[in-house]
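User: I'll paste a sequence; please echo it back and then give the predicted structure.

Assistant: Echoing your sequence first, then the prediction.
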Amino acid sequence: MRPTAGLAGAFVAAFAACRQMAPMAPLEPQQTLETFTLRQSYQGRLGWEMQASQAWLKEDSSAAILREPRMQIYQEGRVASRLRAAKGFVQTATYDIRLSSQVVVNGVQEQAELSTDELHYSDQKRKFFTDKPVLVKKPGSTMRGRGLEATADLSEITIFDQKSVLERTP
């Protein structure tokens, strides 16, 4: 009987030690949503629209964690760029957005495509930022670098630590 009591006592002590660790409740989402949509407007005009297959809202931190976010940014009533990523995070108080894992931005009018692993969108500045490796393709050129600042429509792009390849036209 004694070995069993010793094992039971060890189990209870180990369980109690585990219960003293940081509680999991604050990490849990307060709401889980399927087919999440968030829109931002400026002076009554649609500025951007974000959809995600799932969102986990954390109201205490004014944030949402997104799965498979898709975003359209509008200028003068038309789609200026389209974004997609595997994951995302939106600060619902400021509408700043962080996208990660296979981030792709298509600038519609510029016919530009930006690819990176992580991208931040500042809603106040209406610009993209990253310090990660980037690849930008435009008709006739491919640019690589590390770090970027760009307008939301990709009409103005600054790539830091840049390497460019210009394609010859036949």
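The longest helix spans residues 2-19. Helices lie at 2-19.
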